[in-house]
Amino acid sequence: MAQARLSIDLSALCANWRMLRDAAPSAEAGAVVKANAYGLGLDRVAPALAGAGARKFFVAVAEEGAQLREILGPGPEIHVFSGHMAGDAALIRGATLIPMINGIDQMLRHVEGLPGHPFGIQLDSGMNRLGMEPAEWQALRDIALAQGPRLVMSHLACADEPDHEMNARQLNAFRALTDGIEVPRSLSATGGILLGPDYHFEVTRPGVGMYGGLPLVGAQPVAHLSIPVIQTREVLPGETVGYGNTWTAQAPTRVATIAGGYADGILRAIGPEGWLWAGETRCKILGRVSMDLIGVDVSALDGDPEWLELLGPHQGVDTLADWAGTIGYEVLTSLGARYARDYILS
Ligand SMILES: *Cc1c(COP(=O)(O)O)cnc(C)c1O
């Protein structure tokens, strides 16, 4: 069998969620499960989080929300960041979703299309991505509040940099827009939770930290990726490995070719910096990452390995992200469809 194995540790996921919940004890911790739960599998991740006590879920678009409702059944609240888009009314009603209304156009669409149906409000406190602008909110505020929104939220642009002045600026803007209203408020994702109590309000929206990524320092690894070795060979000094001849052996080298590549979401850019693990031995990637294959130096091992580990206790998504010049979020959401996936409850 030459299929790489992606094991997702649901116990670690839930432990990370509890860690984020306990970091903001005055707030209710929700859970962000957009993009198929950051690539790890909505159908398994969401029920595990519900079992751990999460009652408020957040997704990017209504279609994800409808899928999540199928998985969770009635009860948990499902909020949709993109709000109420044209054509979404049937999905929103059918799956009892809570669209986070982003502007006057969405507000009108919602009250006309689904009068009395729950909604929330998303405000722009400076990121200029989604949400009502302050002037728009000013104009709409009394009408919107009279309809009983479930939640008022905004999103921080720089929360992963605790010293960034943008954090306090957005906090002040959010307060100015919402102080005195009787509706639960939410400002913080993983990074914001770690900024401290001023940022917690009534509801938090952790995502990446639950999945084992920074900025949650000390998160347990959730994704474990092991890749089978297809073939090993001896390469002599002066010989090369892989496309473009980018790696040349200086000494006799034992090379293992493993069954994973960029088509599996193993970013091609990790090649020059990347390592895998055989037990406690670190093994360097040789040459370029191919679509389905990677060459690895296994000279340091006593025998030929059957499997090598790319993600696990030795290195997580943020290590791979550093090699590739990206962020753990992108490593997670790139994880491919070709893996044999299994879910661990330890
Ligand atoms: C993705 C997202 C989150 C979760 O962010 P993390 O950094 O992954 O914790 C929260 N809120 C909004 C609006 C988001 O888009």
Automatic annotation (TrEMBL):
Which Pfam families does this one have?
Ala_racemase_C, Ala_racemase_N
In short, the EC number is 5.1.1.1
CDD domains reported for this sequence: PLPDE_III_AR (cd00430)
Recorded hits in Gene3D superfamilies, A to Z, give: Alanine racemase, Lyase, Ornithine Decarboxylase, Chain A, domain 1
Which residues are involved in binding substrate? R129, M291
Q: Does the keyword Isomerase apply?
A: yes
User: Alanine racemase C-terminal domain: which residues?
Assistant: 222-344
The pathway that the record names for this protein is: Amino-acid biosynthesis; D-alanine biosynthesis; D-alanine from L-alanine: step 1/1
Function, as annotated, reads: Catalyzes the interconversion of L-alanine and D-alanine. May also act on other amino acids.
Give the protein name, as stated in the record.
Alanine racemase
